[in-house]
Every structure is written in C-alpha cells, then in structure tokens.
Design goal:
The chain is of the alpha+beta class. The chain has helices spanning 30-36, 39-45, 48-51, and strands spanning 4-10, 23-28. It contains three helices and two strands; from the N terminus they run E-E-H-H-H. The termini are close together.
Length: 53
C-alpha cells in the first residue's frame, strides 16, 4: 500500500556538511482531509483519481 503526499517542507534551503536537515511530509489520509479541507476545496483541488490509490 502506498501513500499520497500532499506537501513536503525542508527546514533549511542550504545545508552544510554535518548539519541536520528536517523534512516534513503531509500524507493524505481521510482523517487529514477531514481536518484540512472543506468539500468545496476538496472538489476544486483534487480529482477522485488523486485521492483513491
């Protein structure tokens, strides 16, 4: 089973050797959709094939 990724954010643009980089990923789940989207924003932003894997 795979996951759909909505957004990826990096803690920094430039990283030097030895520095730590944090990568934040928003994974699309039905619970995430209920919290983040309204029905209208969902219809405007996604196609059903984007949501059903």
């Amino acid at each position: 089973m795979g996951y759909k990724i909505y957004n990826v954010a990096l803690s920094k643009q430039n990283v030097s050797a030895g520095e730590r980089l944090t990568i934040s990923v928003d994974i699309i789940t039905w619970d995430w959709l209920k919290k983040q989207m309204t029905w209208n924003s969902l219809k405007n932003k996604f196609k059903w094939s984007d949501l059903i894997g």
